[in-house]
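agent> step 3/5: call structure_predict on target 'PP2C family protein-serine/threonine phosphatase' (Oerskovia paurometabola).
agent> reason: downstream docking stage needs a structural representation; sequence fetched in step 2, passing through unchanged.
tool.input:
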Amino acid sequence: MADDARRVASASPDGHPGGPPGTSPDYRAVFAALSAPKILLAPDLTVLDVNDAYLDMLGLPASALVGRPLNDGFEFSPADQDRVDRVVASLRRVLRTGRIELLEPLRIDVTGARPGEWVERHWLMTNIPVFDVSGRVAALVHRAEDVTDIVQTSRRAATDRQVGLDTAVVDHAMHLGSSVGRFQESFDRERRAALELQDSILTAPAQPDGLRVDVRYRPASREMHVGGDWYDAFEQSCGCAFVVVGDVVGHDISAAATMGQLRGVMRGIAYDTGESPAEILDRTERTVAGLGVSAVATVAAARISLPEPSGVRTLTWASAGHPPPALITAGGSTDLLRRRNDRLLGVGSGTGRTDHTVTVHPGDTLLLFTDGLVERRDVPLREGLERLPGVVDDVVRSSPDDLLDALLARLVPHHREDDVALVSVTVLSGA
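tool.output (status=ok):
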């Protein structure tokens, strides 16, 4: 395991092994020298490597941690089990979503000098995904900084204020001691707010009877991890499945907030009215304009009907300036559903948008995606779309049960230029 970690850590920034000595930094040495305590974890949460700061913090040798599950290397109080479980759950979410998570200070005590003694410790933890060149989360970095002194100072400050001591001095001491600390504290608050906003918007998809719905979201921003791309999948009041992908202009918290408003309006209209996708796009545009929401977005929306006795369903979709959906047949062929592409949402009035329909059979899969899947600075959207059916066909042959992750691995580079949202809906056999 330690050798695996050294190979990861000594790789160059693009994921390839480093060149001859002297031509690139020794990333193993860099990792070991980082001042913040960090552990490198495999996807199964086995410790691959640990830096010196982490070992010094716990007073343990590397042999006590490397090659062992994360929580086997040191003891913690049974009273802290729930908080330890929260850390593990966060790591598993990061592995699944590819998004950084920052945990508020958690109390997890460590063993004292005497048997049965526990020493109070508070930790500020950050869990960070490490992507390989294919875009998969290949490892996790777990950062756990001991902030016990800050927490205890805060308690003492509260007590001191109650007895009338000078709070200005105490508050200054608590402010992490430097402008760098203040900037990091502000950044962490903003990042946490961004993550909470994103998580509240991109909820888990519905799983209607006879269908399997899968979703993926990969942000462009390494820092905020929020943007204007979104997915949605739910049942209309008629029982039909309704799926959406969209892309609001922008890659920041403002774009995410606008996206959340647009998504909420659309799902409310779609659920309550049971109208067709084109009608729902038109009503959504009128509603957000009337509410004063300034939003320009591309959107693809699709409805999959309830099955006929034979299991056949009707797929109805409409597009507002969005890349065309793809239909993957049970036989393994892929067809881009190129039809009339209507105007973007939010770019002015015009004639109503158009619905398109095809029949889908058990074993068929509908794929909706945002342009970040196929478009690059050096690959125009049209060219990326032309390549997509061949790539999907290859992926379906090699990874039929792992379609979305395999597509991301093939098409989305390590350094993403744009957000990517994906939705697939498979009609199950025997539905």
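agent> step 4/5: record observation. Residues 1-21, 163-183 have pLDDT under 50 and may be disordered.
agent> proceeding.
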